[in-house]
């Protein structure tokens, strides 16, 4: 009982607006707003129904039964049966009414959501891999498309249309603060529309069990003013900056000559692998390994030295590096802004 | 063959043969050989039912222990207690065990034991098939758990979505074992369903018209038909999966004209009805318990029966609500939303009728009825979250989060396990002849109820706050720490309560208060015979004239006589109004169902390694089946046709 | 505590066997019909589901199956209904000699059809491992072959039983009649499969 009360309390608290960076209750996009309204309607109707049931149950338990101690049904038995029957019919009608309200509300919300995205959206393509997100910003002009990974930058107030595909198993794209989820299914192409309305940093997470590291398949989403977004986009279109210090230059050499470049691409260098996250602007991202680590020098060391320790089973192998190679590589990676 | 022999040439029960003498004769005819051989050959529905119940309860304990490990891991963020691989195995084992090896079988198990008694007959229909089904079920369970202990347990979740579970992304034997386990349990469940349908339709006591049948029997009739119409779908699906994995077919391979969603459709076409296959028997338990403990015939018998039938029918139109996020055409989804919500009408009607029975009766709040109260409080909440999930815009947020986990534990544990524990307490005296301790039982109930809410209520919040399911760990600072900690504490309280229940049962079996035939003053036929019942169930076949026979015939119970006592004979009655129609023999015990199940197990297990096993394994299986069906050489003269 | 009995009727004059829905066997057979029927229905659904996803059925570069073996099989199985009906009537009338002969005839006919079935597999023009079209076509044919073989074994066993002294028992005639009913189900399920394997790929491509 205490748990229930705590539940009710905290729910009220939550609906009051306290929601985190990965919350279905966040109203940070058009879809979230509609969701919030619909959820409130459902909550109201179902709570009301629930209270009626519990009241009837309590009445059934605590009802004074007076005389009837003898074990035989008493005289008024018949009439009560009749009034219960009426009650049953009324109840069924009431449920039907409640359900109609919910069905209609749900349908309306669904239509509203379908219209929530506007014309001329920003187009993005996402390909899910075990266990990271490959992101491609589309443009009519092919020279203005670029790849990144495990992050999305979105201009606030601009509709977004994302095309979803999978490279291996079924994943599910889900940034709860912005909208509901949509599966990525190999062999099929699916779509999801977003319409962020509030600036902020949000977290998305793969929501369909996709194997060993399903838990560590997050997506970092930044919703920012249109100008900031433009800047970011322009920045992303540039090739990787040239390494300056000898250490950084050594790092680039290692990245190109050791296995790194076979899997990763760094635009402007000889690293051109396509099976792993693009690293061109790695250091401008906020996470490493699809949310496994926050971006920092220490964590770059940790990841490159042994990617298997924090995210066991991920598709980047442990590559034995001499300490100086490691220093050089990390120093180079840090320049990829 | 036409020589006429008078019926009096065979011994039958009747005025001349009753009491001790009859008991002696019937017991001789119906008991099995002693010893291991007899144990393996038995066809007594009570013995097999008991085995089934105990086995299913062991799987509950195993599945529950596994969930405790999961809860330990999730108690705190970034916990390193359990590796990702192990965790994935754990939730797969938990879901698979609970759904396939506990929840569905345990309901059938109770029906196997109690239905023939409720219906007033001597044995279940097709008793050898019954024996076979138990062995097949046990084989499936052992296969799954042996694999887990050998470190090749499945790890693709209880619904094993392809392509994750397909040959490319799940090499090795893990998923094969899962799929074969499914096949075993499907065979067992289908066999039991056939028996139950036949038992209910043909073996009811004279006078027990369909309209007088206990509600539990109605529930089992609908559930068995649902099983018959839904399980073949998953059998086919897992067969396709195995052949994709083992012989290179491409049913689910999108690059060769196959499709991953085919699996989801086939699976959920079964998987959704399955949840009602678990819930409806529990609704039957609730009806029986409410009636007995309210000391009033269930209010709205017809309404409840119609509700059960309606749920059974609707259940086949809802499967797509598990697939809202796959991106099928949006408008089509509205249909499934509406259909899913419609189920709330019959469910709500049932709830009303149960509470009304209590309200209008003179309830005794003993343990079984307490479980019913706990059931109402919990199940309705779970049902209402189900209604939320049925709404596409809501589900697209809540799908695959802990909100769903909360939903289905409320309906599975609150809606099915609570009534189950109530039913076990209720029928325990019938099973064992002794009562379970009332005081310990009440303490167990409150602990279980409180622990359950503590464990699963916070999951609604975890889910709304964005916690996906099936994650082996989660980062700090997401706001999920407290809710998860509470869930873990609650889970351990639940475990303690389950342990207390088991202890109570074990102690009461030895030292419980002796029960007598009808300790609760219940109205059903199962209470018209000894506790535990004799092997032959009833000395004379009872006659039924109302829905509550024992309440309406307190002085003397009308019976019919004239079944043979020197051979196992059963009374067949007509389907609708249960008029006596035929006397058919009931098969005697035999080892062949056991042998056949061994042959089947050998075939299934070896077929995971080579397809040739099918070729080599089929003849022994066929041989065992032929031996099973081959008529025994008559050592008593066959009874000639009486014109 | 066990209520005392009040004797209200006598069952000893009831018959010990009957045909049709009065017997338990009939219900068992019906239940298995339903199970297998559902399995076939789901397999059909899978077939059309896969077909609808594709442009070509069969996929490009594959020819539809050859017609000869399958069509002969179909004719034969339809013709077999004549002796099957005779068998059912004979069983219901308890004509042991006739039942014995007809059972042997049915066993023989089924052997001929099994041979044809082997040729059917050979004329599919696709392997199960070529693509999903091949997989589902093989699956349908195999499912039906298994179904067919099961009933064939059942018929063989019954033929054996009826040639022993158990053939005297009235209940065994019920079994024969139920087996004849099952045979109808075997050919009924075949007809849609025949269309799906042999004709739809012709119409669709
Ligand atoms: C015993 C098992 C059981 C039962 C009875 C139910 C009952 C219901 N379930 Fe649940 N469900 C599961 C077991 C069950 N479920 C499981 C195991 C899963 C997850 C599988 C997995 O993914 O692993 C699941 C998942 C699940 C989903 C998919 C969620 C997702 O993955 O995204 C949905 C969506 O529609 C759903 C809906 C419903 C509905 C509408 C009911 C209804 O039948 C509920 C009806 C009952 C009531 C509504 C309460 C009583 C009625 C009243 C008091 C009347 C008044 C009501 C109103 C006016 C609203 N369920
Ligand atoms: C009827 C079905 C059923 C039941 C009863 C339960 C019971 C419990 N489940 Fe459930 N659960 C499922 C069916 C069920 N579950 C399904 C289908 C899934 C989805 C799986 C998937 O995603 O694939 C799931 C998933 C699931 C998850 C989500 C995992 C994830 O997504 O990562 C969690 C997490 O907390 C959980 C917890 C629990 C707990 C704590 C209990 C507790 O109630 C358990 C209580 C019982 C015990 C603890 C046993 C106690 C026994 C003893 C103490 C020993 C007795 C001794 C002797 C007999 C000698 N379950
Ligand atoms: Cu990708 Cu879960
Ligand atoms: Cu469902």
List keywords for this structure.
heterotrimer, A: alpha+beta, Immunoglobulin-like, 3 domains, 5-stranded mixed β-sheet, 3-stranded mixed β-sheet, 9 helices, 12 strands, B: 643 residues, mainly alpha, 2 domains, two-stranded antiparallel sheet, 19 helices, globular, binds dinuclear copper ion, binds copper (II) ion
Would you kindly provide a brief summary of this structure?
Chain A has helices at residues 2-15, 30-62, 77-116, 226-237, 246-257, 260-263, 297-305, 307-310, 323-334; strands at 122-129, 132-137, 146-149, 151-155, 160-166, 171-173, 182-184, 190-194, 200-205, 218-224, 287-288, 293-294. Chain A has 337 residues and is α+β, with helices and mostly antiparallel strands.
What does this protein look like?
The complex is a heterotrimer of chains A (337), B (643) and C (205). Chain A has 337 residues and is of the alpha+beta class. Helices cover 42% and strands 17% of the residues of chain A. Chain A folds into 3 domains: 97 residues, no CATH class; 111 residues, Cupredoxins -  blue copper proteins (Immunoglobulin-like, Sandwich); 88 residues, Cupredoxins -  blue copper proteins (Immunoglobulin-like), CATH 2.60.40. Chain A contains 9 helices and 12 strands. Chain A is elongated. Chain B has 2 domains: 547 residues, Cytochrome C Oxidase, Chain A (Up-down Bundle), CATH 1.20.210.10; 54 residues, no CATH class. Classes of the chains: A alpha+beta (337), B mainly alpha (643), C mainly alpha (205). Strand 2 of chain B pairs parallel with strand 1 of chain C, so a sheet runs across the interface. The complex binds heme-A (2 copies), dinuclear copper ion and copper (II) ion. One heme-A sits at the interface of chains B and A. Copper (II) ion (CU) binds next to helix 8 of chain B.
Number of helices of chain C: 6
Number of helices of chain A: 9
Number of domains of chain C: 1
The span between the termini of chain C is: 75 Å
Query: Which ligands occur here?
Result: heme-A, dinuclear copper ion, copper (II) ion
Using the coordinates above, name the CATH class of the largest domain in chain A.
Mainly Beta
Strand-helix topology:
The complex is a heterotrimer of chains A (337), B (643) and C (205).
Chain A: H1 2-15, H2 30-62, H3 77-116, E1 122-129, E2 132-137, E3 146-149, E4 151-155, E5 160-166, E6 171-173, E7 182-184, E8 190-194, E9 200-205, E10 218-224, H4 226-237, H5 246-257, H6 260-263, E11 287-288, E12 293-294, H7 297-305, H8 307-310, H9 323-334
Parallel strand pairs in A: 1-5, 4-10
Antiparallel strand pairs in A: 1-2, 2-3, 5-8, 6-7, 9-10, 11-12
Helix pairs in contact in A: 2-3, 5-9, 7-9
Chain B: H1 19-30, H2 35-41, H3 45-74, H4 84-119, H5 127-149, H6 174-202, H7 215-246, H8 260-294, H9 301-314, H10 330-342, H11 344-360, H12 367-390, H13 392-398, H14 402-432, H15 438-464, H16 481-511, E1 541-542, H17 549-552, E2 556-561, E3 569-573, E4 580-585, H18 592-607, H19 612-629
Antiparallel strand pairs in B: 1-2, 3-4
Helix pairs in contact in B: 3-4, 3-5, 3-16, 4-5, 4-6, 4-8, 4-14, 5-6, 5-18, 6-7, 7-8, 7-9, 8-11, 8-14, 9-11, 11-12, 12-14, 12-15, 14-15, 15-16, 18-19
Chain C: E1 4-10, H1 24-53, H2 68-79, H3 81-93, H4 96-122, H5 132-162, H6 170-204
Helix pairs in contact in C: 1-5, 1-6, 2-4, 2-6, 3-4, 3-6, 4-5, 5-6
The complex binds heme-A (2 copies), dinuclear copper ion and copper (II) ion.
């Amino acid at each position: 009982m205490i748990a229930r009360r705590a539940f009710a309390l905290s729910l009220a608290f939550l609906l009051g607006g306290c929601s985190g960076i990965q919350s279905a209750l966040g109203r940070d996009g058009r879809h979230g707003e509609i969701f919030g309204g619909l959820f409130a309607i459902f909550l109201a109707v179902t709570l009301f129904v629930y209270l009626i049931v519990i009241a009837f149950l309590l009445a059934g338990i605590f009802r004074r039964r007076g005389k009837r101690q003898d074990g035989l049904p008493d005289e008024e038995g018949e009439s009560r049966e009749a009034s219960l029957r009426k009650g049953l019919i009324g109840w069924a009608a009431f449920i039907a009414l409640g359900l109609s309200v919910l069905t209609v509300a749900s349908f309306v919300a669904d239509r509203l959501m379908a219209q929530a995205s506007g014309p001329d959206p920003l187009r993005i393509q996402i390909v899910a891999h075990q266990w990271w997100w490959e992101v491609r910003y589309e443009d009519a002009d092919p020279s203005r498309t670029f790849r990144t990974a495990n992050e999305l930058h979105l201009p606030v107030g601009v509709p977004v249309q994302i095309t979803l595909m999978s490279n291996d198993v079924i994943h599910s794209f889900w940034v709860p603060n912005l909208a509901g989820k949509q599966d990525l299914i190999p062999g099929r192409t699916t779509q999801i529309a977003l319409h962020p309305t509030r600036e902020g940093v949000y977290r998305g997470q793969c929501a369909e069990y996709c194997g060993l590291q399903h838990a560590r398949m997050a997506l970092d989403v930044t919703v920012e003013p249109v100008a900031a977004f433009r800047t970011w986009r322009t920045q992303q279109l540039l090739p990787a900056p040239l390494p300056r210090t000898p250490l950084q230059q050594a790092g680039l050499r290692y990245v190109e000559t050791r296995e790194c470049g076979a899997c990763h691409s760094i635009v402007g260098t000889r690293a051109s692998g396509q099976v792993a996250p693009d690293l061109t602007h790695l250091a401008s991202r906020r996470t490493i390994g699809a949310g496994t680590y926050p971006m920092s020098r220490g964590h770059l060391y940790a990841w490159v030295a042994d990617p298997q320790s924090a995210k066991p089973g991920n598709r980047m192998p442990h590559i034995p590096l001499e300490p100086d190679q490691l220093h050089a590589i990390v120093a180079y990676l840090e320049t990829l802004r | 063959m036409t020589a006429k022999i008078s019926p009096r040439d065979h011994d039958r029960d009747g005025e001349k043969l009753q009491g001790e003498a009859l008991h002696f004769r019937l017991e001789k005819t119906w008991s099995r050989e002693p010893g291991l051989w007899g144990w393996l050959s038995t066809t007594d529905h009570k013995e097999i039912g008991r085995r089934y119940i105990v086995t299913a309860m062991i799987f509950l304990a195993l599945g529950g222990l596994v969930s405790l490990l999961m809860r330990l891991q999730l108690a705190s963020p970034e916990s390193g207690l359990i590796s990702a691989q192990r965790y994935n195995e754990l939730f797969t084992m938990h879901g698979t065990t609970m759904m396939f090896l506990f929840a569905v079988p345990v309901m059938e198990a109770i029906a196997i034991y109690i239905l023939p008694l409720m219906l007033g007959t001597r044995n279940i229909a097709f008793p050898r098939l019954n024996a076979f089904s138990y062995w097949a079920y046990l084989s499936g369970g052992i296969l799954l758990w042996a694999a887990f202990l050998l470190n090749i347990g499945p790890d693709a979740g209880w619904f094993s979505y392809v392509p994750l579970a397909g040959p490319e992304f799940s090499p090795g034997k893990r998923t094969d074992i899962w799929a074969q386990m499914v096949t075993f349990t499907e065979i067992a469940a289908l066999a039991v369903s056939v028996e139950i349908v036949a038992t209910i339709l043909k073996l009811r006591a004279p006078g027990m018209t369909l309209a007088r049948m206990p509600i539990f029997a109605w529930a089992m009739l609908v559930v068995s038909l649902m099983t018959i119409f839904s399980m073949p779908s998953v059998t086919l699906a897992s067969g396709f999966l195995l052949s994709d994995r083992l012989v290179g077919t491409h049913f689910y391979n999108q690059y060769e004209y196959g499709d991953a969603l085919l699996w989801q459709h086939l699976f959920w076409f079964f998987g959704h009805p399955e949840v009602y296959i678990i819930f409806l028997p529990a609704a039957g338990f609730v009806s029986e318990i409410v009636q007995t403990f309210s000391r009033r015939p269930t209010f709205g018998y017809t309404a409840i029966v119609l509700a059960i039938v309606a749920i059974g029918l609707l259940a086949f139109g809802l499967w797509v609500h598990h697939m809202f996020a796959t991106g099928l055409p949006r408008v089509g989804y509205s249909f499934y939303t509406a259909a899913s919500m419609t189920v709330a009408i019959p469910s709500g009607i049932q709830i009303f009728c149960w509470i009304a029975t209590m309200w209008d009766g003179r309830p005794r709040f003993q343990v079984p009825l307490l479980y019913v109260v706990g059931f109402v409080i919990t199940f309705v909440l779970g049902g209402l979250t189900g209604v939320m999930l049925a709404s596409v815009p809501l589900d697209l947020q809540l799908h695959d989060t802990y909100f769903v986990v909360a939903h289905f534990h409320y309906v599975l544990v609150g809606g099915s396990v609570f009534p189950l524990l109530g039913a076990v307490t209720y029928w325990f005296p019938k099973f064992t002849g002794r009562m379970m301790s009332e005081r310990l039982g009440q303490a167990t109930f409150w602990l279980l109820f409180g622990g359950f809410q503590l464990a699963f209520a916070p999951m609604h919040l975890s889910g709304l706050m964005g916690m996906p399911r099936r994650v082996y760990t989660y980062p700090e600072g997401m706001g999920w720490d407290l809710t998860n900690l509470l869930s873990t504490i609650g889970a351990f309280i639940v475990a303690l309560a389950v342990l207390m229940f088991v202890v109570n049962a074990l102690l009461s079996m030895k030292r419980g208060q002796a029960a007598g035939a009808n300790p609760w003053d219940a109205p059903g036929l199962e209470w018209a015979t000894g506790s535990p019942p004799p092997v032959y169930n009833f000395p004379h076949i009872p006659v039924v004239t109302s829905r509550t026979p024992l309440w309406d015939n307190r002085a003397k119970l009308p019976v019919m006589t004239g079944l043979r006592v020197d051979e196992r004979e059963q009374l067949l009655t007509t389907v609708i109004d249960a008029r006596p129609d035929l006397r058919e023999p009931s098969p005697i015990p035999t080892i062949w169902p056991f042998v056949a199940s061994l042959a089947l197990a050998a075939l299934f297990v070896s077929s995971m390694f080579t397809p040739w096993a099918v070729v080599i394994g089929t003849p022994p299986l066929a041989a065992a089946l032929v031996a099973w069906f081959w008529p025994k050489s008559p050592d008593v003269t066959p009874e000639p046709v009486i014109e | 505590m066990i209520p005392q009995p009040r004797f209200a009727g006598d069952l000893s004059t009831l018959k010990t066997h009957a045909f049709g829905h009065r017997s338990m066997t009939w219900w068992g057979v019906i239940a298995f019909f339903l199970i297998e029927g559902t399995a076939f229905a789901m397999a059909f659904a899978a077939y059309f589901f896969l077909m609808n996803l594709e442009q070509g059925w069969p996929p490009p570069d594959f020819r539809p199956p050859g017609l000869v073996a399958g069509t002969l099989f179909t004719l034969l199985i339809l013709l077999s209904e004549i002796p099957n009906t005779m068998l059912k009537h004979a069983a219901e009338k308890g004509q042991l000699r006739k039942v014995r002969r007809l059972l042997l005839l049915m066993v023989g006919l089924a052997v001929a059809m099994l041979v044809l079935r082997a040729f059917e597999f050979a004329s599919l023009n696709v392997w199960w491992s070529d693509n999903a079209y091949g997989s589902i076509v093989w699956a349908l044919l195999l499912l039906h072959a298994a179904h067919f073989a099961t009933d064939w074994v059942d018929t063989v066993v019954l033929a054996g039983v009826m040639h022993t002294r158990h053939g005297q028992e009235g209940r065994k005639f019920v079994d024969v009649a139920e087996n004849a009913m099952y045979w109808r189900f075997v050919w009924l399920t075949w007809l849609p499969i025949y269309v799906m394997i042999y004709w739809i790929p012709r119409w669709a491509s």
